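Case study B.
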Amino acid sequence: MKSGLTAKDLRLTHKYMLTAAECDARGTISPALMTERIIEVATQHANLLGIGYADLSQHGIGWVLSRMALCMQRWPRFNRNFALHTWIEDVNRLYSTRCMRITGEDGDTIGEARTIWAAINTADRTPADISILGLDSLVIGADGISVPRPGRIPPCSAEDVRASYTWRYSDIDINRHVNSVRYIETMLDIWPLEHYDTHRIAQLDIIYQHECLCGQTVAVAARDVAVTTHEIQQIPTSAPLQASDVELLRDGKRVCAAHIVWKEG
Amino acid sequence: MKSGLTAKDLRLTHKYMLTAAECDARGTISPALMTERIIEVATQHANLLGIGYADLSQHGIGWVLSRMALCMQRWPRFNRNFALHTWIEDVNRLYSTRCMRITGEDGDTIGEARTIWAAINTADRTPADISILGLDSLVIGADGISVPRPGRIPPCSAEDVRASYTWRYSDIDINRHVNSVRYIETMLDIWPLEHYDTHRIAQLDIIYQHECLCGQTVAVAARDVAVTTHEIQQIPTSAPLQASDVELLRDGKRVCAAHIVWKEG
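Model:
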């Protein structure tokens, strides 16, 4: 373990209360804001462990979120407390996997996530070797998290394109690239509000492949796909399940893809 | 004063630290997020004073932000602390005016805002009489805040229309109307990123006139206007100032308008 750290530091819990301004039309947290919270807590914990933005920038490298799998039994509601608990599951030369347990106000588990982070050389955005960071002593393992790692998402076809969107000032982050949370909003926004009144997201897998710049235009493609037997076993519900694959394409090249399992109700 | 409240409760301070995910491309807080924080702190303080969402909903009424004037000498930067201090300036039968002082990490004032809130009957969205709420004992006055109340913003003309935008799921809040912060993003997004590299907002006045629904389309119109002598006196800078009026129009009818004073640099 790194000097100055104790076993307690290997986990971080952050408590939240969902305000009205943070709710979507159903009065629950939106999947995009939940992702923002997940990234926020991961960032805080990395800072605490001495492997955060300030630490890595000395080596000319930085973390980028590469993949996420999020499975929610229920979404935090307006005016209610919830908490995110995070720890590092494992590391290799290129990636660090971080688990999240999401608990409700009674401390019961209401969701789980696996996030896979890559390090890049900030100058040229190429993959960086993270074995120099000495993360091994910070690894805890899955510790009961059962959401599967995000798998391959097959490509959509040209006739699946449903919308296009041009990135604007408000979509851009401190790295001058499109904010990863805005990718999620842009994908989810192809469904009308009525769809969200009758369907909730039970699982969201997302794969980030390329960064986008302000002014670039993406096409949003989506198609219905079969729910797998494994997903039916994994998601504890009596409600009917449906699934969709979505992708963002810039000049025909995929920049981001998502697999969504919808639960009716 | 209401029972159980002390003089100390008449002001609320909320401290923040600006994370990377909360920064715009220049590494400072965006005007939209600053507005979100202002609304958040106003909401927290109203809850503390017993005039918040839960209290008013018993009377079938709720607060809506009607106008805001925000004047920033400098914007909070990445990884730095800032704080919002709020209190009620005055009330009448239809409106409550709330002041905000924004301080930097040394406690120095870096900005000021005046926000004007109306109460509406939540069933039919008509104006509600807030004199029943007994707010008089909560009033403190301007207490040194000098940013002028937002004034009238003259209409743009048809040839000023620069963009259109259709509201989507991610733009909608718990009231099933477009989030007031998204109005600001949509207005600011007509300028390219390069504009924000060379200009900062010194003053932002915003007037909310009508609510929008998911699926509705707004036109965004903007025109350059003269900086007033009063603004030149009000804004302490040696940098050249410019000004723009912007409006959102739904079927030709104004739903929201802004007056922006830009500072070069």
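Chain A is about 15% helix and 40% strand. The remaining cases will be described in the next quarterly update.
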